[in-house]
Amino acid sequence: MTLVSVLSPADLPAATLAERAYAQIKQLIFDFHLLPGDRFSEADLTQRVQVSRTPLRQALQRLQREGFLLVFPKSGWQVAPLNFEAFDQLYDLRILLETHAVARLCEAEERPTLRELADTWLVPAEDRLNHPLPVGQMDEEFHAALVRAVGNSEMTRVHADITERIRIIRRLDFIKPARVDLTYDEHARIVRAITRRRTDEAQRLLRAHVEQSKLEVRHITLDMLYQARQRLAAELA
Hey, CA dihedral for 194, 215, 140, 186, is it positive or negative? Predict the structure, then answer.
């Protein structure tokens, strides 16, 4: 009989603990448990993520470097407020990458990604998901799949970084039920245009789709953030 030892958090290397704390805190931000503008101390999070001060501080400093947090000496930490100018720039870069990916896909001979996307998005209305959280995750994967299909690892890396940085506001876009249905409709049209190798049409549809999401982001208010927190808490209950 083989005995398997289970390590407690105290037995894990500091680097592993810091990585775990980093992932947990970032998820708290993405799930709106920590809202943009919220202030907190290291003591507030120590029990919440169940790590000691050293790996916790390493995780917080990494999130600060990545732009998710701000630090105020002697007065704690703050979730970075929404920076709409920066988001606009990231959306513009995202449009460049994704329209290029669409053009490449229209020209490609082998396109297995399209079959997978069609199975997800070209479905009858009664088979569509209607919960914002999973549809938001599916939307993110749709756009990532288009870029990955090009086979350019640097494009994929840059696009993944953009995706990470806009995730919080992108998820807010899906607290409106109408946006869920619209996403299915627009994704289906994009997939059909690529399948038919209509490059100009596919790029136009993709650009309009992302631009609309960019406009919706501008309507985000503090009240919407609190509503999102309450809705997510209800979904996870």
Answer: negative
- Which of 79, 108, 136 is the C-terminal boundary of a domain? 79
Sheet architecture: strand order including 76-79: 39-40, 76-79, 69-72
- Please tell me the total count of domains within the chain: 2
* Full-model pTM: 0.81
Tokens representing 88 are 């606009």
How far apart are the two ends of the chain, measured CA to CA in Å? 39
Mean pLDDT (the chain) is 87
**Are 94 and 186 in the same domain?**
yes
Dist. CA 118–CA 195, nearest whole Å: 9
Q: Establish if 34 belongs to a structural domain.
A: yes
pLDDT digits (tens, 9 = 90+) for 124-139: 999 999 887 788 899 9
Question: Predicted confidence band at 198 (pLDDT cuts at 50, 70, 90)?
Answer: very high
Pairing outcome for strands 76-79 and 69-72: antiparallel
